[in-house]
Structures are given as C-alpha cells and as structure tokens.
Amino acid sequence: MAATGPAEATVTRDLDVEIGRNVHHLMWDRRLTQTAMSEAMGMTQSVLSKKLRGAITWTARDLAGAATVLGVTIDELVWAPRGSNPQPTD
After folding, report:
1. Structural domains in the chain (count)
2. Exposure of 81 by Cβ count < 10 A (0-12 exposed, 13-18 middle, 19+ buried)?
C-alpha cells in the first residue's frame, strides 16, 4: 500500500532507513562492499547506496535479494535486534 499522507510517508521513510541500517550492519559483519552487494542483488551501487540511506524504498524483491545474499531471513532485515552489531565506519 502506498503512503497516502505525511504520517504514512514518515513511517515508510523511517522503515526504509531502519532496513538500510540493518542491511548495512550485516554487510559490515560479512565484509561486503556496496559494489559486491549491489552486483549480487542485480542493481547499481548508486541505487543500493540510496536504499541504505533510506532515500529509495526497499521493495519485497529487494528484501528477498538482500536476505539471500546475506544469508538471513527478511524478518531479520526488518526487525534486527538493537546492539547486536558494531557501528559501521564506512
């Protein structure tokens, strides 16, 4: 369902940022670069970078691809436990 108002848009954006943060943490843990991850997911590095920042919405296909590449469930991408990963520095 598409966001229909300011509150829904904020929730969607917050979720996209959170998913991006979780994916980035998992990439960091596995020492995967954005280039390697984007190639494995079939997108450009630029698009992945925007998704990781929450500037572009994560689709179901994106989540499935990221989960496959990272060896986790989609649930883990969306609801990663806090404090389980160190803060990435790149």
Report:
1. 1
2. exposed
